[in-house]
């Protein structure tokens, strides 16, 4: 009980406190995101963050770990990810050495040998098991990143973890978390995640920020960028997301572009500069070809007309 009380003292006491905590970590969050994060922390429920790539899902876990002074344990998902990579595996090389040493010494009692070589000293803990065995008072932040890249079979494994915060290792039995870790699951929605897993989480769709919030993000993350340039490039990116692109630029690309333009000592956008640096914003050749110099010129004129009217 003491460990639980100690842990709760580190958790924000309100939605405003949660928003302030993120802001202190350099993350500009709207109230809806702060609300679901606050509830997830207080209710000790995993949070399921869905949205396009580059909108800041992974960054939330990093900021929470930093501001709450918790270890960050990241499980990067990919096709073919299995339990041995995510949970645990046995150190087979060390087990074989132990068997050979026992045989050489004449200690070959089968049951005793089996009990010893499948003990915890030969267990290699992977991210999920590390998160469940977190230290009292400092349960880690477990980031299960891009779950949509993993196979459906891996989702089934996660059901026990996210519902009961426990896992079963046949040779050792059931291992339960002494303190529930903060779990953040992200997906870029390249495929649908099963409802059974979503029901175990609090859900939030993380969308692209509006212009005001994106401008605040740029000002915080790239403070050396000229103010007028920051406003203009954010307006351009906002307009670009309305175009028929294969992959619209995320916030990460906006920040990269702001940094690149600052390195080029730019103080304002022009069609040639935009065309020359489109590879920072767009990652597909068809999109770059779609936004040629002519289209970039038209977008810039449109932005400046609106700015003049305002």
Describe this protein's structure.
With 310 residues, the protein is α/β, with parallel strands linked by helices. It folds into two domains: 148 residues, Rossmann fold (3-Layer(aba) Sandwich), CATH 3.40.50; 99 residues. Helices cover 52% and strands 12% of the residues. It contains 17 helices and nine strands. The strands form three sheets. Strands 2-5-8-1-9 form a five-stranded parallel sheet. A two-stranded antiparallel sheet has the order 3-4. A two-stranded antiparallel sheet has the order 6-7. β6 and β7 form a beta hairpin. It is elongated and about 85 Å long.
Give a nutshell description of this structure.
The chain is of the alpha/beta class.
**Rounded mean pLDDT score:** 90
Count of DSSP helices? 17
Q: What is the CATH topology descriptor of the largest domain?
A: Rossmann fold
Name of the CATH homologous superfamily of the largest domain: P-loop containing nucleotide triphosphate hydrolases
N-to-C SSE string, H for helix and E for strand: HHHEHEHEHHEHEHEEEHEHHHHHHH
N-to-C terminal Cα separation, in Å? Answer: 58 Å
Helix content: 40-55%
Largest sheet: 5 strands, parallel
Percent of residues in β-strands? 5-15%
- The number of distinct structural domains comes to 2
The level 1 CATH classification of the largest domain is Alpha Beta
Using the CA coordinates, give the radius of gyration.
Answer: 25 Å
Strand order of the largest sheet: 2-5-8-1-9
Per DSSP E runs of 2 or more residues, the count of β-strands stands at 9
Shape: elongated
CATH architecture of the largest domain: 3-Layer(aba) Sandwich
Uncertain stretches of 5 or more adjacent residues: 1-9
By helix and strand content, what is the structural category?
Answer: alpha/beta
């Amino acid at each position: 009980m003491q460990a639980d009380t100690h842990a709760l003292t580190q958790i924000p006491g309100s939605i405003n406190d949660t928003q302030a905590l993120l802001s202190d970590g350099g993350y500009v969050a709207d109230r809806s995101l702060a609300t679901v994060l606050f509830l997830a922390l207080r209710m000790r429920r995993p949070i399921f963050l869905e949205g396009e790539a580059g909108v800041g899902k992974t960054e939330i876990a990093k900021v929470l770990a930093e501001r709450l002074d918790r270890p960050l344990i990241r499980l990067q998902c990919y096709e073919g990810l299995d339990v041995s990579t995510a949970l645990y595996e046995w150190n087979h090389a060390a087990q074989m050495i132990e068997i050979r040493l026992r045989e050489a010494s004449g200690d070959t009692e089968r049951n005793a040998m089996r009990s010893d070589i499948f003990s915890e000293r030969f267990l290699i803990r992977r991210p999920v098991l590390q998160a469940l065995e977190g230290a009292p008072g400092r349960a880690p932040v477990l980031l299960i990143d891009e779950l949509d890249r993993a196979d459906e079979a891996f989702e089934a494994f996660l059901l026990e973890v996210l519902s009961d915060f426990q896992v079963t290792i046949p040779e050792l039995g059931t291992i339960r978390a002494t303190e529930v870790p903060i779990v953040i699951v992200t997906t870029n929605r390249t495929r649908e995640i099963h409802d059974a897993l979503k029901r175990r989480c609090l859900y939030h769709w993380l969308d692209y920020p509006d212009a005001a919030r994106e401008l605040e993000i740029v000002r915080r993350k790239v403070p050396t960028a000229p103010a007028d340039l920051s406003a203009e490039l954010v307006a351009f990116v906002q307009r670009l997301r309305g175009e028929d692109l294969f992959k619209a630029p995320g916030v990460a690309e906006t920040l990269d572009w702001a940094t690149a333009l600052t390195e080029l000592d730019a103080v304002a956008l022009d069609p040639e500069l935009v065309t020359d640096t489109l590879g920072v914003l767009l990652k597909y050749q068809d999109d770059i070809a779609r936004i040629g110099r002519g289209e970039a010129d038209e977008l810039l004129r449109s932005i400046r007309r609106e700015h003049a009217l305002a």
